[in-house]
Amino acid sequence: MLRRKVLVLVLVLPLVGCTDSNLQKIAKDLDITAKTVATLQTTVIDANSKKLISEADTRTILTLCIQVNQAGQQASAATRTINALGPADRTQLTAILSPVITSVANVANQTIAISNPQTAETVKTLLVTIQTTLNSINLVVAGGA
Amino acid sequence: MGTALAIVQLLNTAAPGIASLILMIKKTDGTISVVALLDEADAQFNANIQQAKDWLAAHPKVS
């Protein structure tokens, strides 16, 4: 029994040290993305309940958020199974992230009719933050960071 | 070998079970925090999706 535990330790501990810094950066940025999207959703839903943003605009942003969340889940699943970024992993992550980065940029560039200027600014800032963080992940994936 | 067994016994006394040991390393050693960060991100992504879907379901599109 003790020998088996020693064997498990011997096998596990070297693996623990195998994660590379790129994966650390991707994981950290995915976590930031998830938290920023959470703030955006809460901000938009709250603004809608106060009639500061239309149903249509709220729907547009929340639909985008679902897309970002799902891409985040896929990127997380792809990152979880590897110890270092290989060419196939880079291709897969780029395919997951690129479409959603384009979608976020499109919505960020749209004029969302939010009557409260402070809320409008917050929403715009959060959208740009999400776009920047996703771009940061893509940069790591492309080998540029 | 005797030293290794002693270390394992010591570790198992401090944290019973290999799973607990790995969790300890995960929290204290930055090299494995990828998993901890992804766990945290996944939980938040799931909560976000549920929140967005709940709102969309409560506010159906009127055509």
Describe, in plain words, how this protein is organized in 3D.
- The complex is a heterodimer of chains A (145) and B (63).
- Chain A is mainly alpha-helical and 145 residues long.
- Chain A is built from five helices and no strands.
- Chain A has helices at 2-16, 21-49, 55-80, 87-109, 117-142.
- In chain A, helix 3 (55-80) runs antiparallel to helix 4 (87-109).
- The radius of gyration of chain A is 19 Å and the shape is elongated.
- Residues 9-18 of chain A have low confidence and may be disordered.
- With 63 residues, chain B is mainly alpha-helical.
- Chain B is 79% helix and 0% strand.
- The longest helix of chain B is centred in the C-terminal third of the chain and has 26 residues, at 33-58.
- Mean pLDDT of chain B is 71; it is low at 16-25.
- The interface between A and B is large, with 39 and 35 residues.
Name a few traits of the molecule:
heterodimer, A: 145 residues, mainly alpha, B: 63 residues, 79% helix, 0% strand
